[in-house]
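Much of what follows relies on a compact textual record of a protein's fold. Think of the row as the fold of the chain written in a discrete alphabet. An example makes this concrete, so a full record is given next.


***
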Amino acid sequence: MNEKEFEEKEQHFNQLMAYMESDSLKAFRELFLSLHAYEQGQFYLKLSKVMRKRLYSYMSPTELAEMFDLLEEENSDITDYLFEMSPEYAAAMIGDMYSDNAADLLHQVGNQEVVLDYLKRMDANNANAIKNLMHYRNDTAGAIMTREFISIIGNQTVRSAMYVLKNKAEMAETIYYVYVTNQDEELKGVITLKDLIINEDDALIFDIMNKRVISVDVNNDQEDVAQRFRDYDFLALPVVDAKGHLQGIVTVDDIIDVIDDEAVSDYSGLAGVDVEEVSKNPFCAASKRLPWLIGLVFLGLGTAFLINHYENIMEKKVAGLAVFLTLITGTSGNAGTQSLAVAVRRLTLKDEDKTFSWQMIFSELATGLITGLVVGCAIFLIVLSWKKDIWLGFAVGFSMFTAINVGNLAGSFIPMGMKKLGVDPAVASGPFISTLSDLTSVFIYFNIAHLFL
């Protein structure tokens, strides 16, 4: 947003606030409804509880539904806003939202008695559509799909299809794709709005539709659905059940939210902390971070025990070993974290290719050999020129070479193993890989030093 747009938005918000304070209902409604739903939501979030309640008296539930469609994904306090409204008002507004967003919102409410009360108060058709979506497992195509789509029968003409489209367009989340089914609601084809416009009115839908339809199953993971969008550049994807019956569609705006959620989840795993942690209570924040930290402390103790075990080598043979210990452990951890980031990314992009895992292993092995050889040779020359001890140089250089290769392989194998076990590979966090690399590199370093020195 440029400076001019920002100033214009602020002027609108200030004017709206002035209208509310002077109770100028007509002027407020005219300006508020002229704003985009996103801008309406931004203004709404600036209001105090008293002013929000006044807004509810100014606007109908239907008029606020589109705004809450956008707010639903963006604000953690969304359920608190619902409880400010009367149950009748909240139920009516939720019923007018798109069914997928309404289902997500009711999932956030959590309290089953409150959810059932809302469902009982809203229109029966809306309630049934929302309840059907709430039955699907979280993070699946069924959970993120919407039932507001347009379908037609294949044995009708373009003229009759356009009539259906005009009558149902207002309730649909997107009208660019029109899905073709038979009498049993089995998905048979798809036709675009462009196809309907450019073809003759008397043309049969069955003759001009695309019979090869890319669809997803209701139980497909949302990450797989996002991958399908990425591969085909669709604006929407039909969702079918095990028998091929059309159940709903997933739209690109929902997939953008999924991609954002998956990115946050992956980054949280790599960092070993919930990056969306917004709690103002430090005790609550600490309780979420402590399990990882305590686990890593115990893993790190293994490194301390190893150093203690090889203490006699440092004391009796070469005191200079201690100088390079942190260099080797740090480099090994960095190599492992790099390999982890690449492995997680490749696993999210991979096709169903049986040779993929082996290709990734060989690729990381080759990368480790090259980087390890270059860094190992460099540190050998540095130690040799600094300490004037060729055997110490060999020990440090060869340890560096080995530690980098082990770190690389750990960064690749661990997420692959987790993927095989059905666990999110991003859980193999950076701190875990770094600590594990410390442990293995200390073991490697002192054993090699023992052999050379």
Summary: The beta strands are 151-153, 177-181, 187-192, 216-217, 236-240, 246-251. The chain has a mean pLDDT of 81.
